Amino acid sequence: MVPNFWANLPKPFFVLAPMEAVTDVVFRHVVAEAAAPDVWFTEFTNATGWAAAGDRAIGGRLVKTDDEQPIVAQLWGSVPEAMEKLAAHCVELSYDGIDINMGCPDKSATKSGGGSAMICNPENAAAIIAAAKTSGLPVSVKTRLGYSRIDEWRGWLTHILQQDIVNLTIHLRTKKEMSKVPAHYELIADIKRLRDEIAPQTLLTINGDIRDRTHGEELVTQTGVDGMMIGRGIFHNPYAFERTASSHSRDELLGLLRLQLDLYDKYSSQTGRPYDTLKRFYKIYVRDFEGAAELRDKLMHTKTTQEVRKILANL
User: Fold this and answer.
1) 288 or 228: which carries more pLDDT confidence?
2) N or C: which end of the chain has fewer CB within 10 A?
3) What predicted TM-score, i.e. pTM, was given to this entire model?
């Protein structure tokens, strides 16, 4: 049995949300350089695909380094046997915990019964959690309020809390809502009361529209939850986890970009990511300074990291 690191986290704690093709080993190290969260999550990793085809099926999603601690492998899938096998593999990879994705709304996950489709199959959701627990790692869950309707939250979250997990992260929207409406902060107090009644030992983490640590701390003060998970906020501010908010210069932002280029080159053979996947990150660093739009346009037409470095060198 691996020690439960969740029990020793500061309160409140802050987590970098798992984001597909975003929170890989490269970007996590960039965030660490800017301002690190208390807990790292990997990208979504398909247990069924891995069980069938091994590492080539997951594209470097579980690549990590020893300095990323604590780090949680976020897994998804609808086949308990596959979840059990990949969970055991995560022990071999020295992960600190497993989080089961029961909230992803993308069809690539839901069409096979994974992600937010788990909400429609609570019995299998319980079986998936039990399968992950056989690894001995602490098991947590990330999910949504419901599948189609907001009022599904009470029955669904009750069921998940009854599974004795270490942490429950709730994205405060339904699968149907995607990210098209504001997160339902008005439900946090009721959700916390439900947690306190059913599983007071389970930590409660909130996700959805949280801008930065300062914003998260304000919500904790108002609601008394244990943790905050920041996702898209990191695209607006790579320093979102810093303890004292401050402004950052163009040179600091471009320094993070240069670091990401270097790390991409370092890990590309392990992650297998094509160069164009880097382009989604350029808007994080090239913004809010004179000439940013023109510079961004130039970078979007590049084909290699070396081309980007030449453009930055000529600024």
Assistant:
1) 228
2) N
3) 0.95
Please provide residue 247's backbone torsions phi and psi, each rounded to the nearest 5 degrees. Answer: -85, 155
Query: Are residues 44 and 256 in contact, defined by beta-carbon separation less than 8 angstroms?
Result: no
> Residue 147: pLDDT band by 50, 70, 90 thresholds?
very high
What percentage of the chain reaches a pLDDT higher than 70?
100
* Full DSSP string of 27-88: HHHHHHHH---SBEEEEEEEHHHHHHHGGGGTTTTT---TTS-SEEEEEE-S-HHHHHHHHH
Arithmetic mean of pLDDT, 142-170: 98
Per-residue pLDDT averaged across 3-27, rounded? 96
64 is an annotated ligand-binding site residue: no
Contact 183, 228 (CB under 8 A): no
Per annotation, catalytic residue among 71, 104, 166, 225: 104
Would you place residue 56 in the very low, low, confident or very high pLDDT band (cuts 50, 70, 90)? Answer: confident
List 143's β-bridge partners, or say none: 102, 170
Contact between 205 and 185 under an 8 Å Cβ cutoff? The reply is no
Sequence-separated (6 or more) residues with CB below 8 Å from residue 94: 66
Q: Which two tokens stand for residue 191?
A: 């959700």
250 known ligand binder:
no
User: At 283, is the secondary structure helix, strand, or coil?
Assistant: helix
- 184 contact partners, CB below 8 Å, separation of at least 6: 145, 150, 172, 173, 208
Q: What pLDDT does residue 282 have? A: 96
Distances (CA, A) of 139 to 63, 249, 311: 20, 40, 45
Per-residue pLDDT at 245 exceeds 90: no
User: CA angle, 120 as apex, 148 and 43 as ends, to 5°?
Assistant: 90
Domains, the chain, in order of start with CATH, read 9-236 (3.20.20.70), 250-313 (no CATH)
How far apart, in whole angstroms, are the C-alpha atoms of residue 250 and residue 41?
A: 28
Confirm whether residue 69 is marked as ligand binding. Answer: no
Measured at the alpha carbon of residue 205, what is the angle toward residues 199 and 210, in degrees to the nearest 5?
155
Is 232 marked as binding a ligand? yes
Predicted confidence (pLDDT) at residue 190 exceeds the cutoff of 90: yes
